Amino acid sequence: MIKVISKFIPNFIKKRIISYLDKNYLFVGWNLKTKTCPPWKNTIYENKILQSNYFNDLNEELIEKIKNGEFLLNQKKNEKDQINQLKWRHYNILLSLKYLKQLKKEKINLVEAGVADGLTAWFALSFLEREKINYNQFTLIDSWEQMKLSLLKQSESKQVGRHKENDIEITKKNLAIFEKTKFLKGFIPDVLDKYKENEAMIDWLHIDLNSSIATKEILEFFSNKLNKNAIIIFDDYGWPNHEESRIEIDKWSMKKSGILWPLPTGQALFFNI
Prior knowledge:
By secondary structure, the protein is of the alpha/beta class. It has helices at residues 2-6, 11-22, 52-67, 79-85, 87-102, 119-130, 168-174, 212-222, 243-254; strands at 27-29, 32-34, 108-113, 135-142, 181-185, 202-207, 226-234, 258-262, 268-272. It contains nine helices and nine strands. A seven-stranded mixed sheet has the order 5-4-3-6-7-9-8, with helices on both faces. The chain is globular. The chain starts with a helix and ends with a strand.
């Protein structure tokens, strides 16, 4: 009944109604609504895991960079709304790096597969620099082209043509202030031939490929290149339109000695124990 009625309501009115209803939630974004307190909200006591103000400052810094044209988004949207809706996602990214810092490793190697405009990478690299976490290199892997049918399963065919707005030169400019970055451009698995043996062992891997075939290939490639206590962050794990990717992740993780930890944001963490 509600669906039938909603067809006759103009979109701008729908948005106002949703906006009004969302005021009752403490966080709304990325298909997640909750009335529980987000971890970055100010509390009486200092957040011992990740300081609240610290994270908020980074979030506001990025919003300002976008407004000033210092960081260019591939998709033109309300930058403040977009970044704030991704807030819990980015918090989890920083928390994964905080985990590595607690292990007190001498130097770490990081890889991101599926980079786009470098939004996630900016948060990760900013945190690494600010926390003075010693790392060898941050490798960024992406085709920076539209998705091809040959690299998608039939159930994923709606993805064909997506991400055609991606541009590696824009991403390089967005991340230009960071020195220890390496860009590998090409489609998976062929691009992985550019990953040199001396860069092999890694401690942190972020996968956001929107393709189960590419996800399977990247997992197989890095499966024996994960250091002890390495962590993987899967971006697409819990999303209904990426069920094929979730199946591949489940099958891979069942063969590994580790813990797969799904999150309500749609992400999942894998701890390589």
